[in-house]
Amino acid sequence: xxxxxxxxxxxxxxxxxxxxxxxxxxxxxxxxxxxxxxxxxxxxxxxxxxxxxxxxxxxxxxxxxxxxxxxxxxxxxxxxxxxxxxxxxxxxxxxxxxxxxxxxxxxxxxxxxxxxxxxxxxxxxxxxxxxxxxxxxxxxxxxxxxxxxxxxxxxxxxxxxxxxxxxxxxxxxxxxxxxxxxxxxxxxxxxxxxxxxxxxxxxxxxxxxxxxxxxxxxxxxxxxxxxxxxxxxxxxxxxxxxxxxxxxxxxxxxxxxxxxxxxxxxxxxxxxxxxxxxxxxxxxxxxxxxxxxxxxxxxxxxxxxxxxxxxxxxxxxxxxxxxxxxxxxxxxxxxxxxxxxxxxxxxxxxxxxxxxxxxxxxxxxxxxxxxxxxxxxxxxxxxxxxxx
Length: 388
What we know:
Elements: H1 2-240, H2 245-289, H3 294-353, H4 356-387
Helix pairs in contact: 1-2, 1-3, 1-4
């Protein structure tokens, strides 16, 4: 109970305090309301001042802006004037370049026209040359056809001749082989015959030598006997004619003559014996060499003649082959020249008969003019962009 009373007293005290605080708050509110009204009036006055100041500031700003715009306009006008002067100068330069370009274009156009006229004249000249070349080439073609036909005939003749010569060479080789076999057989037979004949001759000469030696020995005996008889006769004669010196002298001369005759006969026999010995030695050497007989030499001569003839035929065949190769090469070169001439004639005919050549020249002139105009325009636009 006491607690509740204390609580009631506290609540009452709190209520009183709150009432006081509420009254105080109301007084503060009224004071604040009065202050707020004063502040509102002050704010209204300030707003009026702000409006007036804003108007003044706007007027000053407009004046300042007008002054700045004037200065800026002056600067811009000066810059624009300088740009206009530069642009006028660049325009003058561009016009001068354009005039130079047009003059160059006119000169190039004139040159191109002259070149076109020259090309047309050259084209006419080429047409004339082509016509002449075509006529000449036709004549040359006819001649070439004749030459080719002649070369073909000559080639066929040469091939037949080469074939005949080859056949002849084969026949000569066969004959040569047969002759060589016959020659070898003949040589063997002749060697054997010569050997037999030589042996017979050697035997005969040996017999002759022996006979001559016997005759020489008999003549020596006869000479000795004759010398003895002469001595006896001379003794008898000297005994008979010793008183006559003339007779003695004649006797001595006759003896000397007889002795000289005997000596000469002896020397002759010795010379004949030496000659016979030389013949025997020569025959022995001939047997050692086994030289062929006259028939063998003739056969060798015939074989040599046949070999020479065969070599001549082979040389002739080689010459004909070389001539055939030369004719073949000439024929090939003429064929190539003929094909080249036909190609040139075809190319010249295409150039001369093609109507697009003049159109192409005119189109090239127009393309050149367009290229020059585009070049001038590109230079002008680049200079304007660099100035701006």
